[in-house]
Amino acid sequence: MELLDAIKSRRSVRAYKPDQVPEEVLTELLDIVRWAPSATNTQPWEFFVLTGKVLTDLNHATVAKIREDMKPNPDIDLFEKPPKGHYAKRQQKFFKQILGIIEPEEGKDKMQNWFEMSVGNYGAPARIVIVADKSAPGWFAFDIGIVTQTIALAAQEYGLGTCILGDAAAYPDEVRRIANIPESKQIIIGIAIGYPDWDHPLNSLRTGREPVEELVTWCGVAEE
């Protein structure tokens, strides 16, 4: 897949086939994405690949946290402030789109159902948990963002879909306990990964983007 096509066609996949992703495929993918850039080549990322019983146990544990209405306690302060202004409007538009697709389960409203699907990895057979050591330099969050996007783009070359999951870092103590991740590691983000079920209604969701004219300010351009 050409790079520009991959950038424009990538989307968050929220329904997956049950087929397991071969270990050698995920190894090859991560071998490629380790070439992502990082500030002064610090390479602050490490990857934990969760599958099978470990992933199932984590899904159950985090869904239980949601049902108990437990407040998230992420390692880094990325989720505390809700969006405001036009950011909030974009988020509300997204909520309206996805809740219009979701069929509520008995005893749950649509939002609750969606939260549970998200923390439950959307049924993907694997999750990549990206961590950074607590000694990582202060700009590491930017580098983690770069390598996360690199995974999402490169995965398409293998016919894989991904969904970047902030909720995967909402309950880091559970992630460390179940996946046996050392206390010295900060849980930053998770990525659901697997073979997309393109026939599922959730994968019909298409989100828009603001026009470039609304996003770019030109500075220093000579007036004609």
Strand arrangement within the widest β-sheet reads 1-2-4-3
The amount of helix comes to 25-40%
CATH class: Alpha Beta
Provide the β-strand percentage band: 5-15%
Explain the overall architecture.
This protein is of the alpha+beta class. It has one domain (3-214): NADH Oxidase, CATH 3.40.109. The chain is 37% helix and 13% strand. The protein has seven helices and four strands, in the order ααβαααβαβαβ. It has helices at 3-9, 23-33, 52-67, 85-99, 110-119, 140-154, 172-179; strands spanning 46-51, 126-133, 161-165, 185-194. The chain has a four-stranded antiparallel β-sheet with strand order 1-2-4-3, sandwiched between helices. Helix 2 (23-33) crosses helix 6 (140-154), helix 3 (52-67) runs antiparallel to helix 5 and helix 3 runs antiparallel to helix 7. The longest helix is centred in the first third of the chain and has 16 residues, at 52-67. It starts with a helix and ends in a 30-residue tail after the last strand. The model has no long low-confidence stretch (mean pLDDT 92).
